Amino acid sequence: MRKNWGITISILLAIAAWASCGGGGNSSSSSHVLYITVPDSNGVSAFRINSSGQLTSVLGSPFPVGTSPHTIVGHPSGKFLYVANQSEDSISLLKIDSRSGAVAESLPRTPTGDSPSSLAMDSGGTLLFVSNQISSTISVYSIDSGAGTLTQVAGSPFLAHLNPSALLLSASGSLLYVAYPNLDRVSVYSVGSGGALQEIAGSPFPVGHGPAALATDSSAKFLFVANSSDNTLSVMAINSSTGALTQVSGSPFVTGTTPISLLVGPTGVLYVADLGSSDIRAFSIDVTTGALTQITNSPFSTDSNPTFLTMDSGGKLLLVASQGVKTVLEFKIDASSGQLTRSNSVTLGSAPAAVFSAR
Length: 359
What we know:
By secondary structure, the chain is an all-beta fold.
């Protein structure tokens, strides 16, 4: 495949922005379904998760999609899933059976640019954004709320810098952040009402080496960037008027080896998946300055090579895709401290890339 090290790392990511759209927490009385992309088998595995966090395979799983599926996002209606097929330059639309959790692909697949690596969707489910690494563009599609079908908006694909990877859409949907692992930069684009992109003044902004993942705090004051090549986290203050980024005092902050995925939990703790050191590090965030402080008992050990983090929508479970041992792990989150306790896990036949927790 046509990648260098920076691109290979970013392919394993999913859009941290969709963690908040996951399924009900382990305190919920009803079950929901986890959908896991498995690139080596060109499929999506599905597991029902009950109120105790126990996992049971959905009948018919894994479900076929395109070649080398990686990022996966779900529509807020709970009716559809979208999967970026990285080696096929396409997006699969999957329709969800609300009773069983099984999915069926709706053909034909939507073409993208070369090597789609990351997806982001606005909270209303009206727009889908795709980073095309090899063609160095960003495709934007409008979403038919009834059928789930995609239509490219006027002006799309939009020209980006070299090899865009991770995407993160602001909670308001007005700004799109884009990481460039090979440039050590993060771009900020304003999003027009029809989905048109315009890079803001001063963008792209310098960060650490090999930015591979992005996250924001709940107040949208700070952007967190995982720098996979120098084992640090950049913390950037976001200008509330312009969207411009400025590095805060003390940034970049040291983390484990090869940070590759980020998630801000419900307690305001920043979780970092360290691919190289096979752990999850957790940091409290100073709400005024953005400074990071590692919490007690961090780091938390994983089985091997965590590549992706997402959250159960109830805020009770952190879900970790672990590449090295082909598992998805559950960690219970302490509601007051944010500390993690290992819970259940499920083993797959191939290495997982990303996880989405459907309602």
